[in-house]
Structures are given as C-alpha cells and as structure tokens.
Amino acid sequence: MSNQETVVSALERRIDMSVPLADIEKDVEARLKKMSRTVKMPGFRPGKVPFRMVAQSYGPQARSEAIGAAVERVLGEQIQAQNLRIAGYPSIEPKEASGTEALEFTAVFEVYPEIVIGDVSAQEIERPQLEVSDAEVDKTLDVLRKQRTTFAAIERAAQEGDRVVIDFTGRKDGVEFDGGKAADFPFVIGAGQMLKDFETAVLGLQAGESKTFDMTFPADYHATHLAGQTVQFEVVVKKVEEPKLPEIDAEFAKSLGVADGDVAKMREEVKANLEREVKRRIQARIKERVMNVLIETHPIEVPKALVQQESQQLAENAKRDFEARGMQTKDLPIDASWFGEQAARRVKLGLIMSELVKSKELHAKPEQIRATIEDFAASYEDPSEVVGWYYSQPQRLAQAEALVIEDNVVEWVVSNAKTSDVATSFDDLMGNAA
Length: 434
Hints:
This protein has twelve helices and eleven strands.
C-alpha cells in the first residue's frame, strides 16, 4: 500500500492511494464464505449451497463491499496519520491500473480552515440605550387600543380612518373586467387596503351617495392585465362607520389578561413586557454588529461542501415554512443556490464562533441556561410550566444552550472592542421610525 498527498488549494486536498489486490481478494473470499453459511437458493438447504454458486451469484456484491471497505480503511488511516479534519464527504476517483498487483484511487476532499482568533480591540460597537418610561407605555397602549377598534354607523361624509361599506363596478372601455366588481365590500380609508386614488375618490361621500371616476393603475400593479391601464369605477356607498377606540378602563385591562381589571397593574405588566422587548432588541442589534466584527476580523475561506450542505438546509427550512403557512410546495422550485451567500456567512460564523468558544472557554454554564429559560418563561401565565417544557427534552435544552453560547461570544467581543453607549428612540428601536 502507498499514498501521496497533494495540496490543491488552501482547503482542498488530493491523496493518491493504492491497495494490494491480494488483500481485496482475501476479503472477498471471507465475505463469500460468511454469506454461504446463511444464503438460500432453490434446491438447497440454507448453508448447503455450493461455494462456487455462491461466488457466481454474490461475487460482484462481495467485491464491491470489499473495495469500499478497503478504500474507507486506507483513507481513514491516512486522515488519522496526518491529523486532518475533513469537511463534508470525500470524493473517490478510481485511477487507471498501472499493473495487476494493486487497486489505485484518488480521494479528493476539503479540510477545515485553521482559525486564529483575530484582534477585535480596534473595532467599534455601539450599545443602544433606552429606558422605558410612561411615554412608551402610553404609546403601546394606544397601539393595543387601535388593535381593538370597533366601528359604529354615522350619518356624515366619510373621512380618513372611517370604515365604509361599498358596492363597486370597474369597467375598461365600457366593459367590466375580472376582479373589478364587489358588493358589500368593507375597507378602512387610509389603511392601504385599496389604492390611494380609489380611497381618495370615496372620501366625502355619505351613505346612499354614488360616484363615477377614472383611475389609472400603477405600472407595476400585480394584475398584469390592469398594470398601467386607465379604467372607470362606479361606487355606491352603503354605510359609513367611524372608529371607536376602547377606553383604558377595567374592561380594557381584563381584555389584556388582568383578571381583576386593575388599570395600574395592567400598566405595570405592559411596562415589564416592554422592558423585556427593548432588552431583546438592543441585544439583537449588538449581536448583529458583533457578528459583522467577527467576519471582518477573520477573513477565512470556508469549505464549499459545508456551504452546499447549509444552503440545502436553508432551502428545506424555507419549504417547511411555506408549508406551515398553508402553501403547496410540491411544484414550487426552491433552489439551494439561492441561499449561497447566506449559507457561506452562517458557515463562516459557525467556524469562527466554535474556535472562539473553545479557545476562550465560552461554553454555556448550567446556571446561564437556566436563567435564559426563565427569562423566556417570564412572559407566560405559568412560567414554571414553560421551564419544565424546556427541560423535558434535550433538543429544546440544546436550543437554549446555543443561545447562551452566542451571548457569551457577544459579551466577549463587546468587552474586548471599543464600545460606546448611544441613546436611541423608542420608535427607532421598534422599527416605527418614518
């Protein structure tokens, strides 16, 4: 047996190897003898089939298995001898026989990159700062009130924010078009359910009034047969309803889960939930910056095999997500290559973080995992039940452990980089800024 390693690129390796044919033949014979003890053939009792017949029927199978085992053994020995970390699965390429004494082949594979933890001390990381006050609680309560808006009929002209119930008919060149007609159709003016020009045409109309107007669809309208086309609508207003927001009282508090209707207690719970959400969003922003820092300070090449595996996993996740939303994915082409850039980033971060955790001892401690789970559970009605749910299955516990490890990595980078506290607004943090 002989072998020779060739470095093709930073991560790709080729190893030329050979296995004596005599060793393979010996293994083939051993496998056939083992088969002959139990093989069944018509006219013979089990274990009594002549060896020659067993070899004729099962020889190709035994030879294939013997060759596979020999290749695996030799390659494994070479990998172990050179202390190589294989990424993905090796590709085995048979070579043209130069003689009759050995089977020659080439194994092509990638190895994991060597990662040296980079210097992050010059990197700048901003830490958003926001203290939840009564103003943020009031804003949140306003949102919750709007989510519980009711509408009441009113005898006046429709205005912004009103809900109207209409009949409408759309015509192009005097002919009704598909999708252009409806009866008893409700929509809120200004909510964006209808095109802006359509909403504007309904403004000022009272129940019982009608209007005919021309309207041009946007050039990028989703219905291609209407995109950029000018049509005529006839609208009849059947009802105008004004919005009614609930008062912040005991009934409102009960609707938010405060059993005794205590408004002060409701505000305290809303504030506590906001503080948790603010903390989560601040951590998410810092984490995103930390991940970018790790990428910037560790310009490593990643194995293509790992990127391909991750791309395939992301494609499968996307497919499951579509199915969970009720979409049929049987004929939906989801190509793994679409996720190549995202996959490469995830693989790179995974390798860097793994080395960082190992070299800086950032493993998750049991008390950290417990604290994280308890934090998750705090917003539920029965936190102890949620905690028990996590600890009832190792897979769920592993998810919490992975989050703790990420937090440990983030904390290490933040503590070693240039950090500054920056005041941020509630709207900006929550994504409500214009």
